Amino acid sequence: MKIDITNQAGGVKAFLSGFSTEELEAKIEACQSGNCDCACDPALMQKIEGIELTTVEGGSMLSITGDVNADTLAPMMKECLFGEKQ
């Protein structure tokens, strides 16, 4: 399982391997609705304008638009997906 997160214009892009698209979609929906079991920061979640998940060769690509950056999102995403503080 691997997560590579980089900044892009208007948000961040993350390549995730080792997770099924269905698993990621369930996590995203839970976090967006405020029902996640992660340590999501509600203030940060409000800065997210959109999330797009696509399946690509070797994993999934997650594009997050809004007033967010990779340095802030990476630790939260890793803790949520791996279940531990990074």
UniProtKB/TrEMBL annotation:
It comes from the Bacteria. This is Uncharacterized protein. It comes from Sulfuricurvum kujiense.
